[in-house]
Amino acid sequence: MANINTDNDTINSSNISSSSPLLSINLTRLDNLFNIGRNYSMIIDQYDDEQQQLQQQQQQQSSSIIITNDDDQQECPFYPPQWLIILFTISLIIFFMILIRFMQAIFTWFISPLIFGNMVKWNGGPNTWAIITGATDGLGLAYAKAMAEKGYCLLLLSRNQEKLDKVKQEILKQYQSCTDIRTLVVDFTQGHDSYDYIGEQIRSLPGSVHVLINNVGMSYKYPEYFTRILDGNKFITNIMNCNMVSVVRMTYLVLPLMEKQKSGIILNISSFSALFPSPLLTLYSASKIFMDYFSRGLYWEYRHRGIIIQSVVPYYVTTNMIRNPGVSFMIPNPDTFVRSALKTVGHEIRTYGFITHRILAFVREWNRFFIGFNFSTRLATRSLSNARKRCYQRKGLDHHV
Ligand SMILES: NC(=O)c1ccc[n+]([C@@H]2O[C@H](COP(=O)([O-])OP(=O)(O)OC[C@H]3O[C@@H](n4cnc5c(N)ncnc54)[C@H](OP(=O)(O)O)[C@@H]3O)[C@@H](O)[C@H]2O)c1
């Protein structure tokens, strides 16, 4: 019998005592088979070893790559943290926003007039009329003179006939291009009653009405808390009639005429105080934002009908209304302001009118963007409270509410 040692995986065929040749051949074959199996298992073992070595090598290589990266990072001179990248990106966006607004302002003020010239055709002539409310002083008078210079006939409206006559003579003498001036005594605080009469006078003008300047306006005598305004009921009615009703009713009289002739210019003199609430002048600033919205809304309604409607939002201009402070970098006289503001007609739907007023508005806009809407109002509250205090002290009264 063949002795098969399974422990050693060997078959010792020499120990086999074989009596038949057939058995001997079969045993030899079996021996070969075991040899093949042993070789095969050796190959598998070798394969496993190789695989293990390969895996170890790969692991070593990948760890060496990470080390290389670390080295790279350490070699990089400055690798900014994420918060710095975010901050830089935000700053860059803000910088470009400011730059765009600045370029827009430069374009409307300097480049656009150079390229396109006058966007408006001022049709001054013996039969073309400009109507100006509140025309005997301040901005109204300056607009009246500017229109006379352009050759318009003038219809001037104010409360005082004497002042109106004086202004009429002055303008006729100074501007030969202006051939006719008519005057109308109207108190715009008196509400709706006077508009039928004004309408009749406008329709009786020979020729066409090409310009309307809604300039008349009134403000507080001094900054005051709403419930403490002297003769409050009367003041509320007066300021609303003068600053809002007059603008709407005058526009309603003139705009249909402009629509028919497919041309016309309406300038509404609002105020810088329309840009944010002005506490202690609350009613004034609210009436001016009304005017501003009214103008800008109408502009979009009528822009395709040959009619230009502009909202003018001046900062201080030295007039009676603000007790004539001296002229300065920020406070022009009415003539300078009007000359500058007229250049923007046709270029801007809403104009600050004067370059330093534009710059101030620009600063305010960005204050609002960065610090919030209430910042300007807070500043205005403080300065108007101080102004009120000074008024009370001048009269020897206690300013505490
Ligand atoms: N001056 C500024 O710093 C400034 C800033 C922003 C906006 N604004 C606006 O600009 C416009 C003109 O202001 P201003 O500073 O030139 O004022 P102003 O110097 O006081 O002149 C006001 C004109 O309106 C007339 N008027 C006043 N009340 C009237 C009434 N109830 N009915 C008819 N006419 C009246 C006055 O003439 P009579 O007294 O003879 O009637 C005068 O001709 C106003 O709408 C104002 O809100 C002015």
UniProtKB/TrEMBL annotation:
InterPro entries: NAD(P)-bd_dom_sf (IPR036291), SDR_fam (IPR002347), VLCFA-Steroid_DH (IPR051019). Keywords: Membrane, Oxidoreductase, Transmembrane, Transmembrane helix. It comes from the Eukaryota. The keyword Ligase does not apply. The chain crosses the membrane at residues 83-111. Belongs to the short-chain dehydrogenases/reductases (SDR) family. This is Very-long-chain 3-oxoacyl-CoA reductase-like.
